[in-house]
Amino acid sequence: MNKEQFIQNYRNAFGDYELPIVFWYSEEPVALAEKTRGCFIGNLKTARKGQFYSLSADTISCPGGKIYTGFSAAPPFIGGFVSGKERYKESEALVTDFISNLNMPDRKKAYINFVSIDKVENFDRIEGLIFFATPDVLSGLISWALYDTNKADAVSVPFGSGCSSMISETLVENQKQGHRCFLGMFDPSARPQVDSNVLTLGIPLSRFEKMLVTMEESCIQGTYAWKKVKQRIENEL
């Protein structure tokens, strides 16, 4: 299935609800960005609105953002900060183990780029998709993600920052050709960067390519139950 067919099927399922954004790495930026102030997730509104957006180690101001995009190793203070100040983990050791177990690849390319999926020519270079979704939209996305599998971890909810759940986990899963999708944005520090009724779903390209085959078969394409949910989605736009 090509990009145009996916968008058509997405519109059939979710009406005019916003399309997912995609991300990929490159040697050159597709659009220069100013240095961010704190968490960069709010800046992704640029990509969500259809404009290209690029970040680098120099323009990401949050140390965690640099780690979870792969541009930086974890600084020595991060364990104490996450456990002691933010109190998201019981101990520094748990934070260290979490970061180590991510197995982030070395990022040799200088930029990470984002844009709405309708702005890319094809899926060739992308690492994954990020859906910013309300509960009703998530109901459809997750039903679709679970349609062809009984794997208990097909949709995973790992601990992590907003950016690690949508970028790090999705990137690593794609590079090992994995099957998991990642529900995210439960990080209290990042929550103010999105609307109160929005979470994210990160889908690696390796999984998305297989899900494309089942999109037209799953419940989100015109079943009686889904039509009622779709109507509510459209009424709330």
Shape: globular
What fraction strand?
Answer: 5-15%
Number of domains: 1
Portion in helices: 25-40%
Structural class: alpha+beta
Low-confidence stretches: none
Give me the side-by-side strand order of the main sheet: 2-3-1-4-7-6-5
Could you tell me how far the N terminus lies from the C terminus, measured between alpha carbons in angstroms? 27 Å
Largest sheet: 7 strands, mixed
* Number of distinct helices: 9
* Run of helices and strands: HEHEHHHEEHEHEEHH
Q: Roughly what is the average pLDDT, rounded to an integer?
A: 95
By DSSP, the count of extended strands is 7
Radius of gyration: 18 Å
Task: Provide the fold topology.
Elements: H1 3-14, E1 21-26, H2 45-48, E2 53-55, H3 63-68, H4 78-85, H5 92-102, E3 111-116, E4 128-133, H6 135-145, E5 155-156, H7 162-175, E6 181-184, E7 199-204, H8 205-214, H9 224-235
Parallel strand pairs: 5-6
Antiparallel strand pairs: 1-3, 1-4, 2-3, 4-7, 6-7
TL;DR?
The chain is of the alpha+beta class and 237 residues long. The chain has one domain (3-235). The protein is built from nine helices and seven strands, in the order H-E-H-E-H-H-H-E-E-H-E-H-E-E-H-H.
